[in-house]
Amino acid sequence: MCCLVQVRTPLNGCLASAEMLLETPLAEEQRELAKTIRVSGSILLSTVSNFLDFFKLEAGECLLRLIPFVCINCDCLLCSAGSASAPASDVEHSGCN
Q: Which member of 51, 80, 89, 97 has the lowest number of beta carbons within 10 Å of its beta carbon?
C-alpha cells in the first residue's frame, strides 16, 4: 500500500503540468497529446485511489455505511441497457417506458 501512496504525488504533478500546458498556445496535435495525458493520468489516479480505498477496507481502517436511497432514473437506464443484450429476459422491470 505504501508504494501506491507515493505514486499519487508525482501523478498529481503530471496532471497539473498537463493542465498548465493546455493553457498555452499549442498546435492541434500537441493539444490532443496533452489532453490524452490529462485524461489517462486522471484515470490512473482514480484507479490508484480505488486500490487504496480497497486496501483500507481490507485492513479494517474504514467502515461502510448502508444508506437507503431512491434512484428514479436508474431503473429505466438499466432497462434500456438490458433490453439490447437480453430481449427475451424473464426479468421484470417496473417503471420503464
A: 97
